[in-house]
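#onboarding

Welcome to the new folks! Below is a worked example of what a typical request in this channel looks like: someone posts a single protein sequence, and someone else replies with the predicted structure as tokens. Don't worry about understanding the tokens yet, we'll cover that in week two.

Example request:
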Amino acid sequence: MKINSAKNSHVTGSESKTPFEQFKRNTFAKMVHAVWLLWRKHELISSLERRKDDARFLEDVGLTKKEVEREIVKLRGEKPY
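Example response:
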């Protein structure tokens, strides 16, 4: 049985892309990933700010209010990637 490789070229599509197309794909993927990281960081900071006065939350995570505030400051100062 002979397999026609031209019909199966879609299986390894990344090899047939030009360097510019690969660059565009990689750039787009990195941009989407960076935006996702920024969104997650924003959500984490927002959640910590909302819950830093909640005694039950602080007891569950085992932190004090001052420690949560320090973590918020540290998260704001970090680069996401």
